[in-house]
Amino acid sequence: MYKHILIATDGSELAGKGVAHGLELAKGLGATVTFITVSEPFPTLAWGGAMAGYVAGDELTYYEESARKYAREVLDKCKADADALGVRAKVLHIENRTPAEAILDTARAEACDLIVMASHGRRGLGRLVLGSQTAEVVSLTEIPVLVVR
Q1: Taking the model in full, what pTM does it have?
Q2: Model pLDDT for residues 52-95, shown as the tens digit of each residue
Q3: Best label site of 55, 93, 98, 129, fewest CB within 10 Å?
Q4: What is the DSSP letter of 44?
Q5: How far apart are CA 110 and CA 127, in angstroms?
């Protein structure tokens, strides 16, 4: 049925449920997995102030280094979980993109036939205020999305 599953994670406890569910599905189907985590662009509001060029430059460097370190930790754990289940997997860290955009582009580029991701299931104003990368992926993708709550 599904041969290549894209599993999106931000390293949160909720996303971990999506990872576990996606891995069990991949194991049962004999599918390969690509794990993706995305680091959003550095907040542009941080560039204000008198010494903005100097301070923001240091902050940008720190932000990028921290994001890379965190992504490595998250993806290393995902890869170890896949290896423990005997699921063939690779990992990708996409930088300076919105999660939904990176997930959609990666699903196309990697020829994935299913996207697995977690969602809080917020509705109405909560979804509008907080935004929903999951809702954006679901509404814009051409392949199936399994949403784990």
Answers
A1: 0.87
A2: 555 567 888 899 999 999 999 999 999 999 999 999 999 999 99
A3: 129
A4: G
A5: 29
